[in-house]
């Protein structure tokens, strides 16, 4: 709700307003605010106030800002105009018998005054006298020109001074040039000497009595900022998450339970057929737990099958041919992807009679990598999984098209890629109209048989999956460049307050 | 993804035609590569150091190409060119064949049992009748470096040594000796050093110091000798100066020592196949027989695969195809790897889109469903949602809250880069307070909320007691202690062997 800016208009000023209007009526072309203030005997600021309040009630007056320069005395200049210049005072204080230079220098005006008086040839120094140099007057009388000039300026006769003289006094810091802003006031299109009072608010009394018909109302200033609402706000990343969640639910995808940040290496890596010497399992990329350090509880027969497929192969595979160690699999980590949960869900699915499923999750994952403006150690992954008989790459593309269409993206291209646990793998690109190029929007693939078959899924069941980060589309949607302003405690709260609703398909 | 830098003009010359940057980018897209950066040596030095240091550097255009992490056959110009030419039907898929030496026996590398203690495996090969130019030589060295950085895991798993065969004579011996007994003139040095001395010498070498730890503390160090006792190399650190390769070298002896035999073979195969125009190791390996995986005709599929260097032909039995996997394709370990290559050759974007037909009804995860409902109403009540980090410092959940960290039940990270990553949060409170502290300029009141996970150690998995044989004691609804059979780990740590049970209880509630 807008409210018009308040105008201060107390009793004393109303008099000034009236005087201004009357003065303006009499004037031929206009009134200068400075002149008016001196003729009314009020401070210039009061006149300025009156001008401003008249300006807010419509076209009563027209006021043009002007600035002019005036010379005025500095504090030191004022002192000199009263007491005389330093050099004059030096002259005055020298008695007939002369004054010791050392004595003179003790006086406040001594130093500057001495030099000036010497150059004016008003005094002379006898260096030969005993007891030190002695100063004598060398003329009878002097004219304190500096003081006279300053007094002229003080009395408003500064035009009588030449520019050169004014600059010199300015150099000595006795004069300064100030800019004075004033207004040239002229009659406006609806000029009148009486101001009709404008109402600011429509009141219940006016409505009931019908008085509103006779009143004039002050127009609203729609340029002014409104009063901010006192309300709550949802976080932009979470708003985007809600939309993605909605999209998956609309497509019939069931939400996976991802409320476990800590995962064993077994589910996060080994069950996904990611080899134990893979760089992603390094200290550099993964957060390992020191407490609790290990998980010891695994479905043992499944674990043996996983071990076999890594070391020797089987299930149609050569395997990686390395020594698989259970100690590596036992190590607890902060999950590096939510695919670990997908693995658990697929294993669970394989323990019963197979039915086709569609799963999704949107939750936090952790990478121990170098941080920069767009990368943090914690971020959110969006993942979709479909398991069914005889799914093909064409099916994966179809699902991706359906998913991205709900995001308003219809032009997609697919590029061969590599993931340790999918084959084929495809990077998904969409065409960015603004940048006029193809940009990567996600990663996808078909899970490897080495992952699915040891779980006990039927041979003709294929599982397709895709993923993308939550932060990237959020930063693009909300125009944020530094991820720290979005995620974490250094969040830009104003951005959260101001964030618009999240509409992903526009 | 590993990145390979190639001189653009050399690349185009080898490919037999020029491309615009856009055309080459498109070719990469179809094949599964990424043209990451177009730059020059000069630009690179300018970026990393400054313009003045770049002054004398080369202006020659470099393409930086990202290759998939499992494709060691694409890590050099030779491999890239071969892959692309076969893909575009400009070259026939090569077949690699082992060639015997013109005269005499093949070379021998004898591995002694001492190596088992430090670096058990080694494989070797000879590349004969090679002609090096400066470019080929640079590429050869660069490929070794790339392999060292990737599959070799910085030389810890596999280390490569290449030698001029004509400066030395076999049979070669790969053994391990105490460092003081190894003495030779290493590459680029003018005198001999013992291995112990070399460890000190290379401690300040910016390149080699990173590899010393691999063997430094072992009682014996790996070393390869020729029949005259000349040291070829001390893997994984440095080669001997005697057998160093030059542009004039015609026959190259390659040895790979390793802690993983499979990887050593892959590395050797890669080096040899990349640089052989004439000869290489055999390994007509794993001939797969698979049914046609596509709706395309079997002939078409065979053609597609051959374009990916996977020589294929019909067996004549039904729709079976026999696929020959060359030694360059160590990434092929299952039929699905072959399927992907067929799809790439066909063109991913040429595949018809279909939709899975199964009908599924979705369920929300109850915890998330409740969270979504609560979020709406808490915001409607005037609170602003924040999203704070799950990792924080020990202080954040301990001292700052007036608690001892050991009492919090927090999970600890073993390799935090800074204090901010020491523990997983046990409460949401510190995150909210830190948010307020970082937003002091905002007008009051600040009303914040967060609904998210915290991490607490499972108390029921109490490490003191044997699971299923312990209990918590409650008096008037309050927990006063625990009792149960002690966990065998606990018993052992106190140097006992008999089963023990225990009870521990707080008596103050009974006052």
UniProtKB/TrEMBL annotation, chain A:
GO terms for cellular component: cytosol; phenylalanine-tRNA ligase complex. It holds the Pfam family PheRS_DBD3. It comes from the Eukaryota. Its main location: cytoplasm. Keywords: Aminoacyl-tRNA synthetase, ATP-binding, Coiled coil, Cytoplasm, Ligase, Magnesium, Metal-binding, Nucleotide-binding, Protein biosynthesis. GO terms for biological process: phenylalanyl-tRNA aminoacylation. Residues 147-177 form a coiled coil. It is found in: Cytoplasm. Residues 239-500 form the Aminoacyl-transfer RNA synthetases class-II family profile domain. Gene3D superfamilies: 1.10.10.2320, 1.10.10.2330, 3.30.1370.240, Bira Bifunctional Protein, Domain 2. Its EC number is 6.1.1.20. Transmembrane segments: none annotated. GO terms for molecular function: ATP binding; metal ion binding; phenylalanine-tRNA ligase activity; tRNA binding. PANTHER family: PHENYLALANINE--TRNA LIGASE ALPHA SUBUNIT, PHENYLALANYL-TRNA SYNTHETASE. NCBIfam families: pheS, PRK04172.1. This is phenylalanine--tRNA ligase. It comes from Gouania willdenowi. The lineage of its organism: Eukaryota, Metazoa, Chordata, Craniata, Vertebrata.
TrEMBL record, chain B:
Keywords: Aminoacyl-tRNA synthetase, ATP-binding, Cytoplasm, Ligase, Magnesium, Metal-binding, Nucleotide-binding, Protein biosynthesis. One of its GO terms (cellular component) is phenylalanine-tRNA ligase complex. SUPFAM superfamilies: Class II aaRS and biotin synthetases, PheT/TilS domain, Putative DNA-binding domain. InterPro entries: aa-tRNA-synth_II/BPL/LPL, B3/B4_tRNA-bd, DNA-bd_dom_put_sf, Phe-tRNA-ligase_IIc_bsu, Phe-tRNA_synthase-like_B3/B4, PheRS_beta_core, PhetRS_B1, tRNA_synthase_B5-dom. Its cofactor is Mg(2+). Pfam families: B3_4 (PF03483), B5 (PF03484), PhetRS_B1 (PF18262), tRNA_synthFbeta (PF17759). Its EC number is 6.1.1.20. One of its GO terms (molecular function) is RNA binding. It is an enzyme of class 6 (ligase). This is phenylalanine--tRNA ligase. It comes from Gouania willdenowi. The lineage of its organism: Eukaryota, Metazoa, Chordata, Craniata, Vertebrata. The gene is farsb.
């Amino acid at each position: 709700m807008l409210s018009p800016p308040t105008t201060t208009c107390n009793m004393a000023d109303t008099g000034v307003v009236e005087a201004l209007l009357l003065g303006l009526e009499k004037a031929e072309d206009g009134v200068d605010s400075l002149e008016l203030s001196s003729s009314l005997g009020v401070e210039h600021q009061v006149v300025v106030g009156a001008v401003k309040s008249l300006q807010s009630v419509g076209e009563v007056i027209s006021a043009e800002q002007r600035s002019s320069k005036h010379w005025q005395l500095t504090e030191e200049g004022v002192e000199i105009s009263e007491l005389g210049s330093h050099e004059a005072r030096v002259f005055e204080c020298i008695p007939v018998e002369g004054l010791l230079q050392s004595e003179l220098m003790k006086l406040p005006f001594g130093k500057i005054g001495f030099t000036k008086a010497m150059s004016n040839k008003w005094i002379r120094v006898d260096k030969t006298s005993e007891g030190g140099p002695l100063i004598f007057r060398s003329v009878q009388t002097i004219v304190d020109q500096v003081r006279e000039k300053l007094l002229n300026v003080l009395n408003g006769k500064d035009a009588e001074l030449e520019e050169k003289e004014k600059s010199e006094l300015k150099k000595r810091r006795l004069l300064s040039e100030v800019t004075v802003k004033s207004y040239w006031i002229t009659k406006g299109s609806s000029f009148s000497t009486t101001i009709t009072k404008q109402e600011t608010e429509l009141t219940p009394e006016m409505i009931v009595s019908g008085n509103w018909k006779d009143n004039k109302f002050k127009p609203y200033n729609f340029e002014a900022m409104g009063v901010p609402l006192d309300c709550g706000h949802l976080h932009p990343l979470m708003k985007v998450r809600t939309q993605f969640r909605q999209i998956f639910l609309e497509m019939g995808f069931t939400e996976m339970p991802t409320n476990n940040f800590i995962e064993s290496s077994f589910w996060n890596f080994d069950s996904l057929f990611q080899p134990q010497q893979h760089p992603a399992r390094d200290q550099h990329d993964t957060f390992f737990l020191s407490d609790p350090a290990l998980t010891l509880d695994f479905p043992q027969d499944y674990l043996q099958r996983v071990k076999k497929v890594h070391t020797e192969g089987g299930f149609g595979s050569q395997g990686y041919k390395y020594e698989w160690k259970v100690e590596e699999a036992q190590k607890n980590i902060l999950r590096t992807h939510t695919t670990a949960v997908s693995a658990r869900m697929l294993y669970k699915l394989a323990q019963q009679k197979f039915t086709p499923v569609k799963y999704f999750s949107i939750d936090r994952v952790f990478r121990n990598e170098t941080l920069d403006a767009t990368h943090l150690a914690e971020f959110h992954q969006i993942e979709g999984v479909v398991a069914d008989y005889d799914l093909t790459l064409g099916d994966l593309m179809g699902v991706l098209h359906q998913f991205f269409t709900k995001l308003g993206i219809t032009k997609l291209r697919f590029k061969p890629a590599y993931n340790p646990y999918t084959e084929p793998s495809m990077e998904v690109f969409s065409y960015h109209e603004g940048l006029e190029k193809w940009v990567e929007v996600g990663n996808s693939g078909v899970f490897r048989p080495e992952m699915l078959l040891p779980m006990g899924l039927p041979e003709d069941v294929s599982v397709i999956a895709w993923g993308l980060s939550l932060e990237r589309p959020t930063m693009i949607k909300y125009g944020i460049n530094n991820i720290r302003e979005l995620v974490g405690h250094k969040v830009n709260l104003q951005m959260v307050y101001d964030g618009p609703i999240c509409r992903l398909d526009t | 993804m590993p990145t390979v830098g190639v001189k653009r003009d050399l690349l185009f010359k080898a490919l037999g035609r020029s491309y615009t940057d856009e055309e080459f980018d498109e070719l990469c897209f179809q094949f599964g590569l990424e043209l990451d950066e177009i730059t020059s040596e000069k630009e690179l030095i300018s970026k990393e150091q400054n313009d003045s240091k770049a002054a004398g550097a080369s202006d020659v255009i470099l393409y930086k190409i990202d290759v998939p992490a499992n494709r060691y056959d694409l890590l050099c110009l030779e491999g890239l060119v071969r892959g692309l030419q076969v893909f575009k039907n400009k070259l026939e898929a090569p077949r690699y064949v082992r060639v015997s030496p013109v005269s005499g026996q093949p070379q021998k590398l004898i591995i002694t049992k001492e190596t088992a203690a430090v670096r058990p495996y080694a494989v070797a090969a000879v590349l004969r009748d090679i002609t090096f130019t400066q470019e080929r030589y640079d590429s050869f060295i660069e490929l070794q470096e790339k392999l060292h950085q990737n599959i070799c895991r910085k030389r810890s798993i596999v280390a490569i040594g290449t030698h001029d065969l004509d400066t030395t004579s076999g049979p070669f011996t790969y053994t391990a000796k105490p460092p003081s007994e190894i003495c030779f003139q290493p590459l680029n040095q003018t005198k001999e050093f013992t291995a112990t001395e070399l460890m000190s010498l290379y401690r300040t070498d910016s390149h080699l110091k990173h590899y010393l730890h691999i063997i430094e503390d072992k009682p014996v160090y790996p070393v390869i000798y020729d029949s005259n006792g000349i040291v070829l190399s001390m893997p994984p650190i440095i080669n001997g100066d005697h057998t160093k390769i030059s542009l004039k070298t015609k026959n190259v002896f390659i040895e790979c020592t390793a802690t993983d035999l499979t990887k050593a073979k892959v590395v050797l195969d890669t080096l040899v196949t990349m640089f052989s125009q004439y000869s290489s190791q055999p390994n007509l390996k794993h001939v797969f027989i698979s049914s046609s995986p596509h709706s395309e005709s079997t002939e078409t599929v065979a053609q597609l695969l051959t374009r990916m260097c996977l020589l294929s032909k019909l067996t004549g039995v039904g729709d079976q195809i026999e696929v020959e996997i060359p030694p360059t394709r160590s990434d092929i370990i299952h039929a699905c790897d072959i399927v992907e290559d067929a799809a790439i050759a066909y063109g991913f974007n040429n595949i018809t889109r279909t939709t899975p037909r199964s009908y599924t009804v979705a369920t929300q995860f109850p915890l998330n469903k409740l969270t979504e409902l609560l979020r709406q109403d808490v915001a409607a009540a005037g609170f602003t949602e924040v999203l704070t980090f799950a990792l924080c410092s020990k202080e954040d959940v301990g001292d700052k809250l007036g608690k001892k960290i050991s009492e919090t039940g927090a999970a600890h990270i073993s390799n935090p880069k800074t204090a901010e990553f020491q523990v997983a949060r046990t409460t949401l409170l510190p995150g909210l307070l830190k948010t307020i502290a970082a937003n002091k300029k905002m007008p009051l009141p600040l009303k914040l909320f967060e609904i998210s996970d915290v991490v607490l150690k499972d108390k029921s998995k109490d490490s003191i007691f044997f699971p299923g044989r312990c209990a918590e004691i409650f008096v008037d609804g309050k927990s006063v202690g625990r009792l149960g059979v002690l966990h065998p780990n606990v018993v052992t740590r106190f140097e006992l062997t008999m089963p023990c049970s225990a009870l521990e209880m707080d008596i103050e509630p009974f006052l």
